[in-house]
Write a structure and sequence with these properties.
By secondary structure, the chain is an alpha/beta fold. The protein contains 11 helices and 10 strands. The N and C termini lie far apart (46 Å). Bound molecules: S-adenosylmethionine (SAM).
């Protein structure tokens, strides 16, 4: 066990600093102060972040933290912390780690006993969900789904019976294909398509999947999908093969069959014994 009292020790610190997702006025005074004070700022792309830092007159040393070689980059950042330097991690926009690099270095730095300190600030999914008009609690932040049709459908089916509101990130050139798959998998649920948050063309389109599909090819910019959860009786029209995919995925990740069935029951609202029976009689399940 490691307890971190962030501001009551003099250990080197890894700060996680969010940056604006559009509107530069959302850069907080604390974020600016910390970025000015640290020895090193690790970013995704030095050109993108260089412009932001220039705008706020921040001159700390900027280095790239590469997602495609996170292991080597993590070692480099840990070395800096071991040398007694304070480091800030930023991404191109929003929070680091939220569909952006940083997971490894946060695990490594916290395991090594350094302070890991978050700074409050913008993230697209938070703006999207609070103004979506969908039920906020509980929600699941899924982030990006796979790009290919087959893999995407498989992933969406895992969430089909979840009663929680689902939040996805999607690229504009894949939004139509993604919503078509959502319609096939979820049926014509309510959803909110949120785009260009904090920018002049910010828009919330609240409707059903099919209504939004009818206008989606006109839409440009960065997008978040906020999808209504499953409010059907969980045991009515159960897609048990999707539930079993979920159980098998958990087993592949190392859970026992018993725990995987229990987890699937919590996620879907379907009684444990129903999933148990289906799991042990796979041949009889469509
Ligand atoms: N780290 C970021 C965050 O905290 O939100 C997310 C980075 S992820 C690589 C980029 C995705 O976030 C975009 O494809 C889009 O789905 C979403 N996004 C980022 N900025 C946005 C904005 N201004 N409006 C809507 N969605 C945005």
């Amino acid at each position: 066990m490691i307890r971190q009292h962030s501001f009551e020790n003099d250990k080197p610190t890894l700060y996680l600093v969010p940056t604006p997702i559009g509107n530069l006025n959302e850069m907080s005074p604390r974020a600016i102060e910390i970025l000015k004070s640290v020895d090193v700022i690790a970013c995704e792309d030095t050109r993108t972040s260089g412009q932001l830092l220039k705008h706020f007159d921040i001159h700390s040393h900027l280095i790239a933290y590469h997602n495609f070689n996170e292991e080597a980059s993590t070692k480099g950042l840990l070395n800096l912390l071991e040398e007694g330097r304070n480091v800030a991690l930023i991404s191109d926009a929003g929070y680091p780690l939220i569909n952006d690099p940083g997971q490894r270095v946060v695990l490594a730095a916290s395991e090594a006993g350094f302070n890991v300190v978050p700074v409050s600030g913008p993230s697209a999914f938070l703006n999207a969900i609070v103004a979506s008009g969908q039920i906020v609690q509980p929600f699941i932040f899924v982030g990006f789904v796979p790009q290919g049709h087959g893999e995407r459908v498989k992933k969406l089916r895992e969430y089909k019976n979840y009663p929680m509101t689902l939040v996805f990130y999607e690229a504009p050139h894949r939004i139509e294909a993604c919503l078509k798959d959502c319609l096939d998998v979820f049926g014509d649920r309510k959803m909110t398509l949120v785009r260009e948050l904090t920018k002049v063309h910010e828009e919330f389109i609240r409707g059903t999947i099919s209504e939004i599909l009818a206008v989606v090819n006109e839409l440009k910019g960065e997008m978040v999908i906020v999808m209504e959860g499953c409010h059907d009786d969980p045991e009515k029209d159960v897609d048990m093969s999707a539930v079993l995919d979920m159980v098998n995925a958990s087993i592949e990740e190392g859970l026992s069959a018993k725990d995987a069935i229990k987890a699937a029951s919590v996620k879907t609202g379907i009684a444990k014994n129903k999933i148990y029976d289906a799991f042990h009689n796979k041949d009889t399940v469509s």
